[in-house]
Amino acid sequence: MLPRGNRINRGDEFRAVMRRGRRVASDRIVVHARQLDDGPARMGFVVGKMVGNAVTRNRVRRRLRELGRHALPALPEHTGVVVRALPPSAEASWTQLSEDFASLLQRSGAAS
C-alpha cells in the first residue's frame, strides 16, 4: 500500500496529470507523468470495468499498487504519476506487469 501522502486521490489531480502529463503506453498499461507544483511524489491508479469484473479489477489494482510502492523511492519530488490498466493487464503475469511498469516509468521521464 502506498503511504497516504504519496497517493493521488482527488479527481482534479487525476485529470491534471492525465490531460497535461506525458503519456507512454504498452499493451497492458498506460503511464501518465507530470511535474506537480508541490509536495512529494504521488501516484494514482485507474482500473476500469473493461479490465474485468470486480475481483479481477481489484487484483490488477493491488498488483499495480505494489509495483508503485517499490518504484516510489526512485521518483523525484513533485512528480505525479497515474497508471491506467488496459484489458490485457487482467491476464498478464507479475513479471510482465513489472517489466511494463518499470519500462514505462523510464520512458515517461518520471523515474531516473
UniProtKB/TrEMBL annotation:
Q: Do the record's keywords include Flavoprotein?
A: no
Reactions accelerated catalytically: Endonucleolytic cleavage of RNA, removing 5'-extranucleotides from tRNA precursor
| A molecular-function term among this protein's GO annotations | ribonuclease P activity
Instruction: Tell me which EC number(s) this protein carries.
Output: 3.1.26.5
Query: Highest taxon of the source?
Result: Bacteria
| Any one Gene Ontology cellular component term annotated for this protein | ribonuclease P complex
**GO terms, biological process:** tRNA 5'-leader removal
Q: Which InterPro entries match?
A: Ribosomal_Su5_D2-typ_SF (IPR020568), Ribsml_uS5_D2-typ_fold_subgr (IPR014721), RNase_P (IPR000100), RNase_P_CS (IPR020539)
Q: Give the UniProt keywords, A-Z.
A: Endonuclease, Hydrolase, Nuclease, RNA-binding, tRNA processing
Protein family per UniProt: Belongs to the RnpA family.
Question: What assembly does the database describe for this protein?
Answer: Consists of a catalytic RNA component (M1 or rnpB) and a protein subunit.
**What is this protein for, i.e. what is its function?**
RNaseP catalyzes the removal of the 5'-leader sequence from pre-tRNA to produce the mature 5'-terminus. It can also cleave other RNA substrates such as 4.5S RNA. The protein component plays an auxiliary but essential role in vivo by binding to the 5'-leader sequence and broadening the substrate specificity of the ribozyme.
- Under which name does UniProt file this protein? Ribonuclease P protein component
- State the organism's lineage: Bacteria, Bacillati, Actinomycetota, Actinomycetes, Micrococcales
